[in-house]
Design a protein that fits this description.
A six-stranded mixed beta sheet has the order 6-7-8-3-9-10, with helices on both faces. Strands 2-1-4-5 form a four-stranded antiparallel beta sheet, covered by helices on one side. Helices cover about 60% and strands about 10% of the residues. The C terminus is likely disordered. The protein is built from 24 helices and ten strands. Strand 4 and strand 5 form a beta hairpin. The chain has three domains: about 400 residues, ABC transporter transmembrane region fold; about 180 residues, 3-Layer(aba) Sandwich (Rossmann fold); about 70 residues, P-loop containing nucleotide triphosphate hydrolases (Rossmann fold, 3-Layer(aba) Sandwich), CATH 3.40.50.
Length: about 650
């Protein structure tokens, strides 16, 4: 019960918005179940006692079938039959016997046929109504649960997007996908598994138990005694099921990550002939997931088997007792409760009715045990889903934040230090200033911290020390959304989507017109090759832009950054895949376009550096030198000069873009 309340409290915020619909839906389902149980009881009594045996109807039954008084039993005669107990000399010593039913309490053959026909018509009408109503109730329930699930998934994606890259750099993408897609579904299962099914099952169990007690208090005690060992078994298996469930979800999450990695790197896999290696790794992950899921189900089946053995023992004991009472036609425990039980003595009909109630009781008990087992799995799934929801973003707005200053005059790094891990700095005491209308090239060897420097400008990470400011306003004082709206980025790894060329350029800028799209494409020198495509800007691209060359994808990425028309532009290896002629044209266009903006170039390509107004040379996380290209090259023992010479020497004979 404590675990149930914990889950309900955690899911309450997501159920609350649909509470009115949830209550209505549960009420409709419970009402349908009540009608069904009532109809079954009425039909059972009418069929076994009235139609087959020929007993006259009770007033409520006659009214339900629109029959006159001649079909009803005389209440006084019926009461006399119920209370008239035979003398002990005439009765067998081991049990009481029933008197023969007087003719006044029996239906004529034609009356029995009439009752049969009207009962058939009544149930045909009821079945038709249920067929009309039940699908609507099911659709209503599906609509509610999907709305709840959609709300939760959207919230999980929103939270994941706001977590810093420090989290995402250590988390596997497939794990987040599995949490959002699979674990989140547990919140909708809460309604059915924890609310609806238990309410219905418990209601039916209590009703069946009440009817059984009406037949015999001994039977009630037999079924009640079976609950004690069942509860003990559930307590024993609870930690086992939770452990198995957690392992199953973790291995399935790893399998999802493996699938995502395979399809994300399919070109690398094929080009390196690594299919067999990948297949082996996938097979290992898939086998681990299969084994973990199988282990969970084995524990579940063992638990269910042991509990059903206990239930079976209770059923066998109950049927043995009922068979003995039926042989001697012993009176039922509450012979006066004719309206509920329908039998004053044990006979074949009473045996069948009580046995049916016992089967229903154990069947609903089996459903409750299944619900309990699923609850253990759901608790693990919800823990994983809520883990993502309950992570607090590392980077959040303060209460007194302001919008990005306009116009922007300069950006300044002052003694900035940062490391992804403690005691392992990537940047150390970085100081740099970039003014409006200038292009700053960030240069250095791989791993020197170039991309990290720009990530800090976007507050994708927080600095460990130092200050980054825009117009002397600290980044932490600027609203995150406003800051990132003012910075456009073109990355070396160009992510394109399976949509039109125009949609890819205008990505995240829904208000862009076709003229805006074409203007941005012209700056990126992409307009010409786009026009040569089958439908021009309306040409649909393949997955990740697979129909384009690397250089074409890079130019579309630059166009996507340009169209945002932001005051700050970051280009990460913007021309790495362009030929020398196209590179020169793109850089000239960007220089003209950026006359009133601040542009940062992250590059290894020496031919790109010369166009920059200033160069910051990073080495081991420290800006060793900064200034114009010519000034830095004039330093005889300069680190930048040594870097340029080392990079350009192997290509001096062939690379026309090399810096001399």
């Amino acid at each position: 019960m404590r675990e149930l309340m914990r889950l309900l409290l955690r899911t309450w915020p997501y159920l609350k918005s649909q509470l009115r619909h949830v209550v209505s839906w549960v009420g409709l389902v419970v009402l349908m179940e009540i009608i069904w149980v009532f109809a079954f009881l009425v039909a059972f009594d009418l069929l076994n006692n009235k139609i087959l045996v020929g007993q006259k109807l009770e007033p409520a039954q006659a009214t339900l079938l629109f029959l006159e008084d001649s079909y009803m039993a005389d209440p006084e005669l019926l009461a006399q039959l119920v209370t008239d107990v035979p003398d002990e000399e005439q009765a067998p010593p081991e049990a009481e016997t029933a008197q023969a039913t007087p003719a006044e309490l029996l239906l004529e053959p034609e009356q029995r046929k009439t009752v049969r026909n009207r009962l058939g018509v009544l149930f045909a009408i009821g079945a038709l109504l249920m067929l009309m109503i039940a699908p609507g109730v099911r659709v209503y329930g599906t609509w509610i649960t999907q709305r709840i699930n959609q709300s939760l998934r959207s919230r999980m994606i929103e939270r994941a997007e706001h977590l810093s890259l420090r989290y995402h750099s250590h988390a596997r993408t497939g794990d987040a996908i599995y949490r959002v897609y699979q674990d989140s579904a547990m919140v909708t299962a809460i309604i059915d598994t924890i609310i609806l099914r238990p309410v219905i099952a418990l209601g039916q169990m209590l009703f069946s138990f009440l009817v059984i007690c009406m037949f015999s208090l001994v039977l009630g005690a037999v079924y009640l005694a079976a609950i004690i060992p069942v509860i003990w078994l559930l307590k024993v298996y609870m930690p086992k099921l939770q452990t198995r469930s957690r392992r199953a979800r973790e291995t399935n999450s790893a399998l999802t990550s493996r699938i995502q990695e395979v399809f994300g790197a399919i070109r690398v896999i094929k080009s390196n002939r690594a299919e067999e290696i990948i297949e082996q790794r996938f097979d290992e992950d898939s086998t681990a997931a299969l084994n973990a899921a199988f282990a969970f189900r084995v524990e579940f089946i063992l638990m269910a088997t042991f509990t059903m053995m206990i239930a079976g023992a209770a059923i066998i004991t109950a049927q043995y007792l009922m068979a003995g009472w039926t042989l001697v036609e012993q009176s039922t425990a509450f012979v006066g409760a004719v309206a509920l039980v329908g039998f004053t003595v044990w006979n074949l009909g009473a045996f069948q009715s009580a046995a049916t109630r016992g089967t229903e009781l154990t069947g609903n008990g089996r459903d409750m045990i299944h619900v309990w087992g699923m609850l253990q799995d759901m608790s693990v799934g919800l823990d994983r889903a809520f883990f993502l929801l309950e992570l607090e973003p590392e980077i959040v707005d303060r209460e007194d934040v302001i919008s990005l200053p306009t116009p922007i005059n300069h950006i300044r790094y002052e003694n900035v230090s940062f490391g992804y891990l403690p005691n392992m700095p990537v940047l150390r005491d970085v100081t740099l200033r970039a003014n409006v209308g200038t292009v700053t090239a960030i240069v250095g060897a791989t791993g020197s911290g170039k991309s990290t420097l720009m990530s800090l400008l976007l507050r994708l990470y927080e600095t460990d020390a130092g200050i980054i400011s825009i117009n002397d306003t600290h980044l932490s004082s600027i609203q995150l959304d406003s800051l990132r709206r003012g910075v456009a980025i073109a990355l070396q790894q160009n992510t394109l989507f399976a949509s039109s060329v125009a949609d890819n350029i205008a990505y995240a800028f829904a208000d862009a017109s076709r003229a805006d799209v074409e203007a941005a494409a012209k700056v990126a020198c992409a307009h010409e090759f786009i026009q040569q495509m089958p439908q021009g800007y309306d040409t649909e691209l393949g997955e990740r832009g697979g129909d384009l060359s690397t250089g074409e994808r890079q130019r579309l990425s630059i166009a996507r950054a340009v169209i945002r028309d932001t005051p700050i532009l970051v280009l990460d290896e913007p021309t790495a895949s362009l030929d020398a002629e196209t590179e020169v044209a793109v850089l000239e266009n960007l220089s003209d376009w950026a006359s009133e903006r601040i542009v940062f170039l992250i590059t290894h390509r020496l031919s790109t550096i010369r166009s920059a107004d200033q160069i910051a040379f990073l080495e081991d996380g420290v800006i060793r030198e900064a200034g114009p290209h010519d000034t830095l090259m004039a330093m005889e023992q300069g680190r930048y000069r040594a870097f340029v010479l080392a990079e350009s020497a192997p290509k001096a004979a062939t690379d026309e873009g090399s810096v001399r």
